[in-house]
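Hey team,

Filing this mostly as a record. A colleague (T.K.) asked me to run one chain through the structure pipeline before their review meeting, and I want the input and output archived in the tracker in case anyone asks later how it was produced. No errors, nothing strange. Just documentation.

Input sequence:
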Amino acid sequence: MHDTRTQTLQVPGARLHYEVGGSGPTLLLIPGGPADAGALAALATGLRDRYTVVSYDQRGFSRSALTGPPRAQDVATFADDARRLIAALGDEPAYVFGNSGGALTGLDLAARHPGHVRALVAHEPPAPELLPDRAHWRATFQGVHDTYVSEGAGAAMHQFVATIEGDNDTIAPMPDFSQLPPEAMEMMGRIQGNLDHFLNHVLLPVLRFEPDTAALRTGPVPVTVGIGTTSPAVGVPLRSALALAERLGIEPVRFPGDHQGPATDAVACAELVHDAFARVKDVERR
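Output structure:
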């Protein structure tokens, strides 16, 4: 059992809430929006016996309050926050795991601030700008935002969940959060409070981000791209991850479950994350 401590870090325009627990090299977990650190709580638990695990809420979500007026939040801003958090934790680079939008943060962090990242696992980063039908997805997600403006968060999220899976007629079921730790149940309530900020200020800037694959391919940070075994083949997250892996010239690693696998299949996913970082350690020892 590893105790965790909660701290805050002041960054330009926000105060980041983060949690630290475990022992060993630092591992930063980055959740995607509109979720927060609670989405990766079970994954953190499975890794604290081998790492000092740091999980946090990205700015504007849940307990990481903005200290200025709300505005568009892009991936570069989220990555700068992650860089500042890693620097505040010590002088060494960190292992980084990101899921969904958090994986986009990790990719930008590794591309622009490689000295802060020892290795990165990016699980299903939704990057429609890497896809050949990017113009279609720009218009589609603009439609989600327009629905938010005209009909509110509930209707927009209904549309978004269907759209991100690539089929507006079929909405993938939400994971059974009752099987997760109590913290995850509390997170569901926090997510509801995050929807307006996500739809109004985060959705479009984040989904119009294109990872710098040239910098990632030639840079010093080892990148592992994760894909969900049961993720819909037509969905934006899986298609984006496959496109990213192809551009980086690497084979993606199959994780159990779908886009939410790190939450719903945390034990198995923790081992895969550790295996990816262990391979980096083996190379460093040679």
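Quick notes for T.K.: The domain at 4-285 is CATH 3.40.50.1820 (Rossmann fold). DSSP finds ten helices and eight strands in the chain.
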